[in-house]
Design goal:
With about 325 residues, the protein is α/β, with parallel strands linked by helices. Helix content is about 40%, strand content about 15%. The chain has two domains: about 150 residues, Rossmann fold (3-Layer(aba) Sandwich); about 140 residues, Aspartate/ornithine carbamoyltransferase (Rossmann fold, 3-Layer(aba) Sandwich). Bound molecules: phosphoric acid mono(formamide)ester (CP). The site of phosphoric acid mono(formamide)ester (CP) has 9 residues, from helix 2.
Length: about 325
């Protein structure tokens, strides 16, 4: 593995090996795998879990981290090519990334979708540009349309909960005050598909996922995949509901149209009543951060179904497995 940009480009066995290694590292957390090594962490967007879990993990492995948050004590970065840089951005990634790579043994980069061009974002154009500019292995810490660190931790969580590899996985839309991109839903779909699960996409009719992502999940090995629109049907015999909001594909790049489309969808807030037809101990997953009583009710987050803290903890172990693989 030269970079860790997506689970989609890795053989299934390699992903399962990373999960198994993450579970070993969870049992034996301290080692010196990164002694004398430096990991650069560039955050073009905010974070809590990714920032803290990478720094904690690197510390547990005897390494050092350098955190760069452009505009917060470091220069703002321009990502567009061929631009006259007479605006607020001070430095171009064409210099910044090779410079950072020269100081570090591994780089991690977070760079969200700008939600202008759907095809460009689905191709993860900017993350691949970062990889081309870096002479060192690159970890995708969430890009325009993927979040593989989250996906690996989620796979580990499902294994630890004994959710069957061919169990019933529901990816559910929920209302949110902003149009969100496809990074987490795509990562969750990829993970469930590679695991061989039966996937249900539960969303309003107005909010399917892009056809490309559904076709991709089929090709990656989903046992089955369908799109349904009522909780009773979608959650029938569900083992897990994974909640995320996303922009309707037809409104990508048009936030005003999207807000008009979703203005009557506020009732799409996950509640206990959604689980009537699910397995009695079906789990609730969310990558966090989550808006309480907007996307999901307190009764779920504070109840026995929720595994959101378990998921977040596993970010630490999954990322240590990725770092171990890349440094070796
Ligand atoms: N799930 C996740 O990536 O959390 P942060 O945005 O807080 O890093």
């Amino acid at each position: 593995m030269n970079d860790f940009l997506s689970l989609r480009t890795l053989p299934r066995d390699q992903v399962q090996n990373l999960v198994n290694l993450a579970r070993e590292l969870k049992a034996n957390p301290i080692n010196d795998t990164l002694r004398g090594k430096v990991v650069g962490l560039l955050f073009m967007n905010p974070s809590l879990r990714t920032l803290a879990s990478f720094q904690a993990g690197i510390g547990q492995m005897g390494g050092t981290s350098v955190v760069i948050q452009p505009g917060t004590g470091t220069w703002t970065l321009e990502t567009r090519d061929g631009i006259v840089m007479d605006g607020p951005e001070v430095e171009h990634i064409r210099e910044a990334i090779p410079v950072l790579a020269s100081y570090c043994d591994i780089l991690g980069i977070r760079s969200f979708a700008n939600q202008i061009n759907l095809d460009e974002d689905l191709a993860d154009h900017l993350m691949h540009k970062f990889a081309d500019l870096s002479s060192k292995p690159l970890i995708n810490m969430e890009s325009a349309s993927d979040h593989p660190c989250q996906a690996l931790a989620d796979w580990q969580t499902l294994d630890e909960l004994d959710i069957p590899a061919d169990g019933n996985f529901v990816l559910s839309w929920a209302w949110h005050p902003k149009p969100l991109p496809y990074a987490v839903p795509r990562a969750a779909l990829t993970m469930a598909a590679l695991r061989g699960m039966n996937i249900t996409i539960h969303s309003p009719k107005s909010h399917p996922l892009p056809d490309e992502l559904v076709a991709e999940a089929k090709a990656l090995g989903a046992k089955s995949i369908r799109n349904t629109h009522t909780a009773n049907e979608s959650l029938e015999n569900a083992h897990v509901l994974y909640c995320k909001s996303w922009v309707a594909p037809q409104n990508y790049g048009d936030p005003e149209a999207e807000m008009r489309l979703r203005k009557n969808l506020r009732e799409w807030c996950v509640a206990e009543s959604w689980f009537e037809t699910a397995w009695s101990d079906a789990k609730f997953m969310h990558c966090l951060p989550v808006r309480r009583n907007v996307k999901v009710a307190d009764e779920i987050l504070d109840g026995p179904r929720s595994v959101v803290i378990h998921q977040a903890e596993n970010r630490l172990h999954a990322q240590k497995a990725i770092l171990t693989n890349l440094i070796n």
